[in-house]
Design goal:
Distance between the termini: 19 Å
Low-confidence stretches: 1-6, 68-76, 522-530
Mean pLDDT: 82
Number of strands: 16
Structural class: alpha+beta
Shape: globular
Radius of gyration: 24 Å
Number of helices: 16
Strand order of the largest sheet: 2-3-1-4
């Protein structure tokens, strides 16, 4: 399906989750690793990973290709169960992927090869309680090999599918003795499970199908247009604004980026720069990098902070807002995020009430002073949509995710010790230039832009160290601010850098039919077939 501009993508070869949300209310991420035991031990030969991959692909429905109907203006019905598969660098190594392909990854994707645990303290700001040594077991790059992500319409389908996968992998990890009726060998399967589900709507939400996060904000509204794929989100809309459109190469390997550059068609430097051979191109074609990030969220502490900030609003502003505590808190939340909690936008002065609909597409052309959406607000940092704010380049991500833990607003489940958070999955073509830049720089930059008169980090996901930092809220007649009680509301519980191959490459990985050795470096006849 072609979008408004650009040639159509080969959607049948792209794992669908890269281009479109699953649209299902339950998710389970199976974090899979294997322990080979002592090298050279004849009693414990390496787990046959390629055989396991074949069995896995046979057992589950294949990762679905992107669906043109769902990518367009009218969404089609989601299947009852979907499966998508990503690999860590260790996972590719243990599958015996050809060394020259791993060398290309090391050259062009150093963050992926190093792994998130190595990069996190410096490039993601994951220190203190968020440091990798505190992450969940099984997320570290030294153990994790595959991530199988299952989305389902119901919890029962998720349980049935994941239980079957776990049994099959466990049998392979125990070896042949179990199948022969002998005493079973110890399992060498290392399996961790991360579950998420759509939260019930908060009080007053009219749409029971809306997605929310634990901070009380509606989620899933931001849309990123991919040229050659996306259609306008509404039939009566003229199309996504220019700042929301991006070239496919921002998300898929082997295609031009917004700048026109295409770093995945050649390798080497200077005089040794040469085209990738056809076999190498086949491995990278239509692949994407994914970042699975477990983000703990302290919703109760955030709510206390919001209510305290609402109580300190200037008296004249409290009168203008009507004085109702619920609306005062919603106003503070709206300024911190850049949207009202229910997703509605700031459109025109006096910027005190939600206006219009909860729509995905907007820009800041009518809010040049930051009176509606402060310059330091979360959406203005993470999705600037404005070339004046992003001097060099945008850093788009395709965001997928579901929360975990009971909703704080559900009166029937107010466990104070309940874990709450978000299982985010973010797709891009460059972990370094996109994901790490957003999380490690834009979220923590002080200030985000020169017009910002405050010195607070991203109000929702920043690692706040100064509890008296100032978040400035411009208004006609003078600014006011939130300048007490800051602390990190989120805590990283794990991050994995993953490689999501195209569907043809995935089948080739299981069959070992593709990816012949690379021609010699001086072979001038080598040509890419992107």
């Amino acid at each position: 399906m072609a979008g408004a501009t650009g040639a159509a993508l080969d959607a049948a070869d792209i794992q669908s989750l890269v281009l479109q949300p699953a649209g299902l209310p339950f998710v389970r991420h199976l974090l899979i690793g294997f322990d080979d035991g002592p090298q050279g031990d004849p009693e414990h030969p390496p787990v046959p990973r390629r055989h396991a991959l074949n069995r896995l692909l046979q057992r589950l429905p294949p990762p679905p290709a992107a669906d043109c109907g769902r990518g367009g203006a009218t969404a089609g019905a989601a299947p009852p169960l979907t499966a998508h598969l990503g690999f860590t660098h260790r996972g590719l190594q243990r599958l015996d992927i050809r060394q020259h392909l791993l060398d290309i990854l090391r050259e062009k994707a150093p963050a992926f090869c190093a792994g998130a645990a190595v990069r996190a303290p410096r490039f993601l700001g994951d220190t203190g309680p968020s440091a990798p040594r505190h992450w969940r077991e099984g997320v570290g790059h030294e153990v994790l090999e595959w991530v199988l992500t299952l989305h389902a319409a119901g919890a029962a389908a998720l349980e049935e599918a994941s239980a079957g996968v776990a049994r099959m992998l466990d049998e392979l990890a125990r070896g042949a003795r179990s199948a022969a009726g002998e005493d079973p060998a110890p399992s060498r399967l290392r399996l961790q499970v991360l579950d998420g589900a759509r939260l019930p709507p908060p009080p007053g939400e009219a749409d029971p199908q809306a997605f929310y996060v634990h901070f009380g904000y509606r989620d899933g509204l931001s849309k990123v247009g991919v040229r050659g794929w996306s259609r306008p989100p509404r039939a009566d809309a003229p199309g996504l604004r220019e700042a929301s459109w991006h070239a496919p190469g921002e998300f898929l390997l082997g295609r031009p980026q917004d700048s026109g550059a295409n770093p995945w068609i050649r390798r080497g430097q200077g005089a040794r720069l040469r085209a990738l051979p056809p076999e190498g191109a086949a491995f990278f074609r239509n692949a994407s990098f994914g970042v699975l990030r477990d983000i703990g969220q302290d919703g109760d502490a955030f709510e206390r902070f919001v209510q305290a900030a609402a109580a300190r609003l200037p008296e004249h502003l409290r009168r203008q807002l009507g004085g109702a505590p619920a609306h005062l808190g919603a106003y503070v939340k709206a300024k911190l995020c850049g949207r009202w909690p229910d997703g509605r936008r700031f459109i025109d002065a006096p910027w005190l009430q939600p206006q219009g609909e909860a729509r995905a597409d907007f820009d800041y052309s009518r809010d040049r002073e930051g009176s509606g959406r402060p310059f330091g607000a979360h959406v203005r940092r993470m999705n600037p949509r404005d070339r004046d704010m992003v001097a060099l380049r945008a850093r788009p991500l395709l965001r997928r995710g579901l929360p975990y833990g009971p909703a704080a607003w559900a009166a029937q489940d107010r466990r104070p010790d309940a874990e709450r958070g978000l299982l985010g999955l973010f797709f891009c073509a460059s972990i370094e230039a996109q994901f790490e830049h957003l999380v490690g720089q834009w979220a923590d930059r002080v200030p985000m832009t020169l017009p910002d008169g405050g010195n607070a980090k991203d109000p929702l996901v920043g690692q706040h160290e100064d509890d008296r930092a100032r978040f400035e809220i411009p208004l006609e007649g003078g600014a006011h601010g939130v300048d007490e009680g800051w602390r990190p509301w989120t805590r990283t519980r794990g991050t994995a850098y993953l490689y999501y191959p195209g569907l043809q490459a995935l089948a080739g990985m299981a069959a070992d039919e593709l990816f012949a050795p690379e021609p010699p470096a001086d072979d001038d006849d080598a040509r890419s077939t992107w």
